[in-house]
């Protein structure tokens, strides 16, 4: 568990990718001085710094082992809790996007690691006959081994065998097929102003489904509020 704190703010996060996503997407936090931010992993301090103007962290260890730990965390927390693989539509949107954040970061090794760590990783890769550190390929292989798909995404149920990495596509098809999409996943999308242009039909589908649930279980919905 990671604990992130600064003046007037304190929050726990299950994975480092959750923290890095916040650093990259939250304008309030992105504008803070790294020295004013406290980050700890189960009580052990994690140094916060900046790379090319963006907040990041630096941790000891080899680049490959640190990168693998990022995947281990989201795998166990969100994709395969209790070692059971969830369907894409059973995973919350923000958690699904962490995997694709990892794919993006795989192309930015110096954002994640010091120049010394990258140099050491390149040297070790050279000894194995590789040109250098290739985190993207490493992640592609890990994703396929663990989750059954690479960057292109899993096969869409009812989608004619197409693969897609966009979470909303899997949710839309699952809703259309009457799958038991978790309410938390539905709530993520009903709070959005719109889907992408090629999935505009999914917005009214969500509205109709949510209305049907409210009408069928009015008391349970109120008790949740």
Q: How would you describe what is shown here?
A:
The chain has 225 residues and is of the alpha+beta class. It folds into 3 domains: 2-57, no CATH class; 63-147, no CATH class; 167-224, no CATH class. 51% of the residues lie in helices and 11% in strands. It is built from 11 helices and 6 strands. The chain has helices at residues 16-25, 27-30, 63-79, 93-105, 109-112, 115-127, 135-147, 167-176, 183-190, 202-216, 218-224; strands spanning 2-6, 9-13, 38-41, 44-45, 48-51, 54-57. It has a 4-stranded antiparallel sheet with strand order 2-1-3-4, with helices on one face. Helix 3 packs antiparallel against helix 4 (93-105), helix 3 packs parallel to helix 7 (135-147) and helix 4 (93-105) packs antiparallel against helix 7 (135-147). The protein is globular, with a radius of gyration of 20 Å.
